Amino acid sequence: MTDDVQTLKKHLRREFLSRRARIPRNERDRISRLLVQKFLATELYREAKILMAYASRPDELQLTELFSACFADGKTLAIPLIVGKGEMRAVVVPNFDSLELGAFNIFTVKPELRRFVDAADIDCVIVPGAAFDVRGGRLGLGGGYYDRFLLQAVKAHKIAFAYDFQLVNNLPTEFHDTKIDSVLTPKFYWHTVDDQKFREMASPLTAKNSDI
Q1: CATH number for the domain including 197?
Q2: Which of 101, 112, 124, 187 is the most buried (most CB within 10 A)?
């Protein structure tokens, strides 16, 4: 059964990532700006003191404007740094000048400027992935780094930014897959916790049922 689930996950991962990669750059950038602006208007962002985001790959939703907002608002911003096999830590980004291109052309903090923050102190993590479902399931990128890291981020709200097509009813999951708390897309702000209050909010965004 486990082998069947892993095979299905690999197939779905290829499908979702292929579809994401076909989105034109101008559309990707437009939706990136839209989602960042929506997120900046939430109570979640306003109350968070320490946020963790990812340094975007070219085909991912771009978070540059979120980085700028964190710097301007005096929040502590961290990004992932792989420090060993299957292990990553959160390294603080003090400003754009502290970044340099690292492995796989992904930005990382310059070695001489690295300062780490404990996962348990993070208030909000923006989690990447190939797809997400309405129960909090996440189809990751295959390395398992976030599944391990998020277990340590005990107080963090785990949110994903995604295209509408990346939010689905159900994804295959395994016991070690860490769930997320909410998904933000152009049309939806979906809270995945099993609570009627949040179920009512998990409809298309309107002034009536969302603070976005």
Answers
A1: 3.40.50.10420
A2: 124
